[in-house]
């Protein structure tokens, strides 16, 4: 069993993956979850976590194929001894709060584990549907694997932890709004019932997602930022309800340096992802003028800022 289950960031493909298009994900080690028992129960929301896990176990007991894989008897027994998941992954921020939980349950209680990532994705999707109504399974897959990966209809390709080239920097921009995944995903699924929307989304939007992923992995910085600009325009057109009003200016502005944004996770709140090749100019843009670039944590100073930012 792993000691910790790290949160995740979907760099690209959060909605296009519904069409089995390519997606790219990385772990986010700043936030994580770990199993604990009774001695810590009253700390860190332990009692609430234990009660929530009992409800989740009840849900899993209704899924015949999941019952064959997860040892629910042992899981429920540990819950009676006040097992809980100690997590600092923020809920409603698209970072995998439910994904870490699903990954932890599978890792701790699977009767027999598999290395088949697509098989795991299917299983995790069924398990995580408890939280969102439906799930691709990719969030808990990332939280379970704990490595960057690209996923396609044909399979998942694990990437090295240092695959990202040094001249592409990524930040999380806090909208200060909690996101509710289910209504946003339901809205998108309703839209795709329209043949016109579906055709345009697949032909006009998905190729920009693919181009961002391929150019990022290949380290083609020029093509990456050109593709990102087109992707941002596509999100304004196809995913407008997922963009919060307080970050709309970031999506619509024209910049005199390589900087662009996109939604993270289902959107509608949580974090917005920012990409740049100039950290100092980006900090100035976001309200952190005159501070040292710190890629390991929060970028802050004593002056009021527009956003809280985490550099990855």
Care to describe what's here?
The model is unreliable at 289-304 (pLDDT under 50). The protein has 312 residues and is an alpha+beta fold. Helix 4 crosses helix 5 (117-132), helix 4 packs across helix 6 and helix 5 (117-132) packs across helix 6 (138-145). The chain has helices at residues 46-60, 64-67, 72-80, 97-109, 117-132, 138-145, 181-191, 195-218, 221-238, 248-252, 279-285; strands at 5-12, 23-36, 84-87, 149-152, 155-158, 169-174, 259-263, 271-276, 298-299, 309-311. The protein is globular, with a radius of gyration of 20 Å. A hairpin with a 2-residue loop joins strand 4 (149-152) and strand 5.
Task: Provide a compact summary of the structure.
The chain is α+β, with helices and mostly antiparallel strands and 312 residues long.
Question: Which key phrases capture this entry?
Answer:
single chain, 312 residues, alpha+beta, Ribosomal Protein S5, domain 2, Alpha-Beta Plaits, 2 domains, five-stranded antiparallel β-sheet, 11 helices, 10 strands, globular
* Number of beta-strand segments: 10
Sheet with the most strands, sense and barrel status:
5 strands, antiparallel
| Helix-strand pattern | EEHHHEHHHEEEHHHHEEHEE
CATH class category name of the largest domain: Alpha Beta
How many domains? The number is 2
- Class inferred from helices and paired strands: alpha+beta
User: Could you please say which CATH topology of the largest domain applies here?
Assistant: Ribosomal Protein S5, domain 2
CATH architecture of the largest domain: 2-Layer Sandwich
Assembly annotation: single chain
Percent range of helical residues: 40-55%
Task: Return residue spans where pLDDT drops below 50 for at least 5 consecutive residues.
Answer: 289-304
Distance between the termini: 26 Å
């Amino acid at each position: 069993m792993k000691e910790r289950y790290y949160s995740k960031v979907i760099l690209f493909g959060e909605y296009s993956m519904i069409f089995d298009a390519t997606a790219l994900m990385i772990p986010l080690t700043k936030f994580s979850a770990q199993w604990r028992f009774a001695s810590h129960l009253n700390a860190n929301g332990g009692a609430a976590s234990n009660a929530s896990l009992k409800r989740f176990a009840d849900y899993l007991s209704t899924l015949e194929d999941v019952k064959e894989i997860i040892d629910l008897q042992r899981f429920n027994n540990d819950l009676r001894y006040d097992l809980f998941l100690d997590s600092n992954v923020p809920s409603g921020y698209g970072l995998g709060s439910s994904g870490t939980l699903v990954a932890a349950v599978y890792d701790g209680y699977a009767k027999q584990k598999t290395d088949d990532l697509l098989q795991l994705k299917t299983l995790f999707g069924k398990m995580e549907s408890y939280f969102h109504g439906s799930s691709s399974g990719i969030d808990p897959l990332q939280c379970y694997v704990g490595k960057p990966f690209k996923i396609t209809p044909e399979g998942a390709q694990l990437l090295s932890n240092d695959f990202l080239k040094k001249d592409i920097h990524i930040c999380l921009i806090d909208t200060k709004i909690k996101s509710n995944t289910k209504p946003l995903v339901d809205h998108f699924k309703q839209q795709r019932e329209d043949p016109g929307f579906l055709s345009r989304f697949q032909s006009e939007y998905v190729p920009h997602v693919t181009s961002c992923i391929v150019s990022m992995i290949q380290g083609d910085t020029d093509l990456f930022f050109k593709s990102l600009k087109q992707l941002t325009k596509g999100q304004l057109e196809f995913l407008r309800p997922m963009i919060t009003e307080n970050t709309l200016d970031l999506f619509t502005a024209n910049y005199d340096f390589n900087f662009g944004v996109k939604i993270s996770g289902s959107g509608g709140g949580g974090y917005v992802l920012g990409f740049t090749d100039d950290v100092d100019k980006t900090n100035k843009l976001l309200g952190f003028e005159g501070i040292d670039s710190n890629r390991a944590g929060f970028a802050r100073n004593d002056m009021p800022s527009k956003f809280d930012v985490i550099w990855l």
